[in-house]
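Hey Z.,

So I finally got round to the FE2/S2 (inorganic) cluster thing we talked about over coffee. Here's the setup:
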Amino acid sequence: MHDETKVQITVSVNGETYTRLIEPRLLLSDFLRHELKLTGTNVGCEHGVCGACTVLLDGESVRSCIIFAVQVDGQSIETVEGLAKNDTLHPLQELFHQEHALQCGFCTPGFLMTLVPFLRDNPTADEAAIRQALSGNLCRCTGYANIVAAVKKAVESGVGR
Amino acid sequence: MKPAPFKYFRPESLDEALALLAKHGDEAKVLAGGQSLIPAMNFRLAQPAILIDINRLSALSFIEEKRGQMHIGALTRHSMVERHPLVAQKAPLLAETMPNIAHVQIRNRGTFGGSIAHADPAAELPAAMTVRGARICLRSTRGERWVDAPQFFVGLLTTAMEPDELLTEVAFDELPKKTGWCFVEVARRHGDYALLGVAATVRLGMMGKVKDARICFVSAGETPALATNAQDALNGQAPSAELAKAAAQIAAAQDIDPPSDIHASARFRRHLATKLTERALNTAFARARGETR
Ligand SMILES: Cc1cc2nc3c(=O)[nH]c(=O)nc-3n(C[C@H](O)[C@H](O)[C@H](O)COP(=O)(O)OP(=O)(O)OC[C@H]3O[C@@H](n4cnc5c(N)ncnc54)[C@H](O)[C@@H]3O)c2cc1C
Ligand code: FES
Ligand code: FES
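And the result:
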């Protein structure tokens, strides 16, 4: 039958190094949530459509529900837990708070992890570019207008620079 | 849902990958970006016994130009193609196509070769590559062969690849002079699969007449076939808005057999084909004349 041999991986997550023995079929999203107990990364659809599970892999946004944990062996991951430093929110988190850019908050980690590299690469993005950047993230509470407002404020205050 | 168990191989070299494929080809699947394969595995629509992860084959990630030909390695991520200056300069049709593929998080992971190998009729790259007369390089322990795009895409999610073959690169001519291009699609939400899309290039010859027109559709049939009737109607004619309109009507009526599904009816797709082809041709005409870019 199937070979269920576990594989050892070493991954850096938010700057900390973790070594774990895992099944190859374990999704990166489940690895973060169940193995590392980093439950900030949410899982909505588990097939790449909603964006709730977005994390950074070597600095670029990816869907953690459609990557196997075994594939990121030796690479570095950043999750929403890595944004705030001590008790200080990341400026983008602070702006989400100020602009009421979250209601239930389920989609928020995915939006934030999509926006951090977007603002890094497009520090002067206009509204059209912002909307396009957000096209891969769904918000069931449909708070898009406030999310866009928060990102516009982030551009104005130079968050990406 | 969660994927079924599988055995995982992560070759570090092309030779190792080809040896694994030669041994396990029938029960194995190549794992590239995983952006089509892993969703299918999560739904258990796909349950391969073995996965051969090619993500460490960094030699398969490249964009080069050699003697007027563009070469793109199979493992090149969509976002790298999208941002590459050589693509913008030598392959503007491809540059215009890339942002339509899925969302940024998926383009950061999905690969050029994976999109071609997957052969989804709703995907943009098979149509754009068919228009550009691309050749697809397949490698196995038996050797190497190059297959022309029309012979490569044989049916719905079906290609001419044998189970022991790896798609390693795609090559196509850089856009010739006096050639206009356009990629345009309609999707419900930016980044979603297109309800219908059109890739077109138009080369003008002597006296400014159309010398070589090529049109190919996304989501209009099982394979990305060229719209030969419309192309015939264009070749040899002087480009004009009337010509674009007439050719678009021929394409929508004679060259495609669009499906009806929950996303759109066949009738609506034909309507989109008419409108988008007309728009694409007018844009390509203007670009061929150097009026816009
Ligand atoms: C929500 C969502 C939306 C999407 N929207 C679009 C869209 O609008 N347009 C679009 O074109 N795509 C879309 N995609 C798919 C995406 O572009 C994928 O990147 C692409 O289809 C497959 O590339 P991959 O590298 O991820 O391949 P994988 O998923 O790894 O593989 C796909 C198939 O190709 C085979 N394969 C892959 N590479 C090779 C190779 N080198 N040699 C031999 N076989 C190989 C695999 O075995 C598998 O059968 C979307 C995906 C998601 C999840
Ligand atoms: S949970 Fe990953 S995209 Fe929806
Ligand atoms: S805030 Fe509830 S899903 Fe977005």
